[in-house]
Prior knowledge:
Layout: H1 2-16, E1 20-22, H2 46-54, E2 60-64, E3 71-79, E4 82-89, E5 95-102, E6 105-106, E7 111-112, E8 121-128, E9 132-141, E10 144-153, H3 157-167, E11 168-172, H4 173-183, E12 200-201
Parallel strand pairs: 6-12
Antiparallel strand pairs: 1-3, 2-11, 3-4, 4-5, 5-10, 7-8, 8-9, 9-10
Amino acid sequence: MRRIAALCCLLPLLAGCAGSISLGEPPSRQPTCPAQNAQSSDELNPGVVLIAQSVPSASWLPCINPLPVGFRYERLEATNHGTHLWLKSGGEGNDQVEVLLSQACDLRGTQETRTAPTGMRRYQRVDDLGSVYRGKWFYVFPGGCVIYQFDLHGASAATSAAAVAAALGFVSRETIARLVDDYSDGRLHLVPTSPSTTGKHT
Length: 202
């Protein structure tokens, strides 16, 4: 009952989405990926609902699977302009990975890669200096764009980037909409996806 009440407050708030909404400092629950064929509303994560409502056009939503050893989820902020996630590593928090969801991305200066999840296109702009790995990976799909922004250090920086990227995931808006509907017995709904919106901006 408490979780239903929390979602009842959450969804109307994000429909207007004024200002910045923060889920707080660690150890706040990370926006965990549910299974794509999730049948139980117990898999509904409030953080992923926030992400979904921040960009109503997005057909895919970023989420987090178990992270590599040494990395931790830091925080999430959602506004009417999109979502920003922070992951950190190292005792001093020197290594950082950011995940951003927006309606569109500026792809100037990027190169398209051959590997991308089904229904998406991936681009990248990377500086790999051996002991430092800085760059951005762009995932473009109908209604939105997700950026992985890396700032990693050490001899294994590039390997760490690949490991973190493998741990990050996507869940379809359709899946989250169904879980919200099931969980609330049809009383709550996500803002619907706009089919006319494109995620690519050059």
